[in-house]
Design a protein that fits this description.
With 216 residues, the protein is mainly β. Helices cover 4% and strands 37% of the residues.
Length: 216
């Protein structure tokens, strides 16, 4: 369902991560621009740390620790959480969802596109997740709703993330059937804004009004 590209092993050639829905993820290692080798199992990103497949929806492949090593963040459906696979170098990853503070906060969420961007200008890439349930009739058999509000997790710069969605303002709390995501400084204010695609609706623009702040 999601595809992300980054040079995870620093050999100068971009590699491809594929988040699959209810099937093993795939990681295609670029062999000097001539061919690709699928290495997800060897790299430690094919399954979650419990050995189960993940209902992969979105994927983001970015350096979240400012160490030059792109890590992988995924979205999934409720009761699975949004996995974080940290890049250890030498072609190896390890899931660190719980230590990063993302396990409990995302366990009841369903996510689609996600993206890493420094939203508060503190030098660390935060996580923006666009959300909605996968079933439009979920309200008929559960207390959930098809529409969900989006979520933002602040990168604290110490390997952990904090859910700061509640501080996003009243418009940010409005649920919707959100699907796609893009970032850009739309007003040249020096802060990244977010554009969110909505299923069968008008896209939402979230204007970033936060000032830079220190991690903590």
């Amino acid at each position: 369902m999601g595809v992300a590209v980054a040079d995870y092993d620093g050999d100068g050639y971009p590699d491809i991560f594929v988040a699959n829905d209810n099937a093993a993820n795939q990681l295609f290692h670029n062999i000097r621009g001539k061919r690709f080798e699928e290495v997800a199992m060897q790299a430690g990103v094919a399954f979650g740390e419990d050995g189960n497949v993940i209902s992969g929806m979105g994927a983001d492949f970015r350096d979240v620790r400012n160490d030059g090593l792109p890590s992988i963040r995924m979205t999934a459906v409720e009761k699975e959480g949004f996995p974080l696979f940290l890049n250890l170098g030498h072609g190896q990853f390890v899931e660190k969802t719980a230590p990063a503070g993302l396990a409990m906060d995302t366990f009841e969420m369903s996510g689609w596109a996600n993206g890493g961007a420094d939203l508060d200008n503190d030098g660390w890439k935060d996580l923006f997740v666009v959300r909605s349930n996968v079933a439009d009739n979920v309200h008929e058999f559960s207390p959930r709703t098809f529409e969900e509000p989006n979520a933002v997790f602040r990168n604290l710069g110490n390997g952990e993330f904090r859910n700061v969605s509640a501080t996003g303002g009243p418009d940010f709390q409005i649920p919707g059937v959100h699907r796609g995501l893009a970032f850009g400084d739309l007003d040249n204010a020096g802060r990244l804004d977010a554009v969110v695609a909505v299923l069968n609706g008008q896209a939402k623009i979230f204007h970033n009004t936060k000032l830079a702040q220190k991690p903590g």
